[in-house]
Every structure is written in C-alpha cells, then in structure tokens.
C-alpha cells in the first residue's frame, strides 16, 4: 500500500496503522505476528492495545503497562496504547512510563450522563427514558471534556456509538452542530481524528475536521489477522477529502504529547 510520495529518507511512503491490537489485550495475534502481517500489507505497524480497567483482557495496572512497553519495545513497531477516557488508569501513569509510548489514543468507550451513571458502548439495551438527543448531547459534552483533559494524540473511532444506536444514520445523529463542537474541541487540543476501518465515519464529519485543520490518523482497529493493517477504506477516504499522504498523522514526523514527558519528571 504505497504511493508516489517518498518519506524523508527517499523510500516510498507507506501508511501507518496507528491502532491495532494483539494478544497483550483482546487481539488474536501475538505482537511479532502482527508486525509480520501488517508489513506484508505494505503498511507500517503499530501496537495499541487496550490499557484500561474497564475492558476485558486489557492491560490493567501500572505494573502491567511497564511490562507491556518492555515487550513491544523489542519490536520494530510504533508503541501505542488505547486508553478509556472514563477509566482513571491513564491519570495514574508516572511520567517515565508515559514517555515510553510513541503515541497514545483515547477512546470514548463509555459516556457520563448528566444525572449520573454511564452508558457503555457495548452494553445491551439503552437506558429507559433517555432520548437520542439527550444521549448525543451528553456524548458531545464528554468528548469536549476528553479533549480538554486527556493527554492523547488521537481520538479513536470518533463515531463509535452504543450498540442500540448503530443502525441509525450517523449523519442524523451527528448533526452539523454536534460535528462543529467535536471538531473544534479536537482542533484546540491538537488531537487527531482517526478514520477507523472498523467504525467508519461519514465523509461530512471527516471533511469538517480537515477543513478546520484537525490532523487525520489511520487506524484498522484490527483484532484479527484479516483486520490488522487493513487501511484501504481509511486511506481512500482521507485522500477523497484532500489529505496528502505525508500529512496523515505519524508520531515520528508530527510529534506526540508523550515526547519529553519522562525527561521532565
């Protein structure tokens, strides 16, 4: 999956899959197998496993984060991690650990409701009495808080919604006013908008982000051999809205909020 563009060393440009999972959390490939599989697709690999107490089979403690990083540091791979906004583990990482990531992703896997409680993205059913508009307003409000507070480089799968809403048209749930608020929050925070191959955003939202100056990242959110490194849809959509290949988020090129964290400790 190359283009006529070259990188800084003059080699043909290849996309970076900023978001993929291994057996270190809930993926089915060992880390080394993921690297091999993704490279075979003409894509540069990264590992970004779940780091959260609220995800099954995730990296769940600070000590486990240390062990996770030690294992993937031995591989030729970008070192990511996917953190849940609603879970406190990301707040507990000491700077020397945070600084070992090449990039970090934040996910809205659960949304706080104004009256208390959470709506989880993978829960069955929808809270009684909660309207679609009330939920979406809470979702956007949480996204704004996430962007203001969480020191991550990428918002994973920005259009991920609870199971009960996924058959509804994204363009109707994500009104233009909600898109504007989300995009503005990401722009002000310097957080990239992920085009996810698994939870695919609608083109209007991506174009709005690009027009505002939000950087775009590509993510397979792959968990299986068939999924990891599959960036055909994300790359095509990015190109259709006018993003140059070399402008797609790459922590080695565009930097990361992790850089210098350990040095400041």
Write structural notes for this entry:
45% of the residues are buried. The radius of gyration is 18 Å and the shape is globular. α2 links the parallel β1 and β2. It contains eleven helices and eight strands. Helices cover 35% and strands 12% of the residues. It is an alpha/beta fold and 265 residues long.
Lateral arrangement of strands in the main beta sheet: 1-2-3-6-7-8
* Overall pLDDT metric: 94
Which fold name corresponds to the CATH topology? Answer: TIM Barrel
Could you tell me the radius of gyration in angstroms? 18 Å
Tally the helices.
11
Work out the number of β strands.
8
CATH superfamily: Metal-dependent hydrolases
What is the overall shape?
A: globular
The amount of helix comes to 25-40%
Q: Structural class, from secondary structure content? A: alpha/beta
Reading the helices and strands in chain order gives HEHEHHEEEHEHHEHEHHH
Distance between the termini: 39 Å
Flag low-confidence runs. none
CATH-derived architecture: Alpha-Beta Barrel
- State the domain count: 1
What is the CATH C-level name?
Alpha Beta
Strand count, sense and barrel status of the largest sheet are:
6 strands, parallel
Proportion of strand residues: 5-15%
């Amino acid at each position: 999956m190359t283009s006529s563009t070259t990188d800084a060393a003059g080699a043909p440009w290849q996309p970076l899959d900023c978001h993929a999972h291994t057996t270190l959390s809930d993926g089915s490939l060992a880390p080394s197998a993921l690297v091999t599989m993704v490279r075979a697709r003409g894509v540069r690999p990264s590992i970004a496993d779940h780091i959260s107490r609220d995800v099954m089979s995730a990296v769940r403690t600070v000590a486990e984060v240390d062990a996770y990083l030690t294992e993937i540091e031995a591989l030729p791979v970008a070192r990511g991690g996917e953190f849940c906004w609603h879970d406190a583990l990301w707040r507990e990482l000491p700077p020397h650990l945070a600084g070992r990531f090449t990039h970090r992703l934040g996910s809205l896997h659960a949304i706080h409701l104004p009256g208390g409680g959470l709506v989880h993205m993978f829960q069955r059913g929808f809270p009684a009495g909660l309207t679609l508009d009330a939920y979406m307003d809470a979702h956007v409000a949480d996204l704004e808080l996430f962007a203001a507070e969480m020191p991550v480089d990428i918002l994973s799968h920005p259009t991920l919604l609870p199971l009960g809403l996924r058959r509804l048209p994204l363009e109707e749930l994500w009104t233009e006013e909600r898109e504007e608020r989300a995009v503005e929050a990401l722009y002000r925070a310097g957080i990239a908008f992920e085009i996810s191959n698994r939870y695919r955003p609608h083109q209007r939202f991506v174009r709005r982000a690009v027009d505002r100056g939000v950087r775009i990242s590509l993510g397979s959110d792959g968990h299986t051999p068939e999924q990891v490194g599959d960036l055909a849809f994300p790359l095509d959509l990015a190109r259709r809205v006018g993003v140059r290949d070399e402008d797609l988020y790459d922590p080695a090129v565009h930097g990361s909020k992790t850089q210098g964290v350990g040095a400041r400790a």
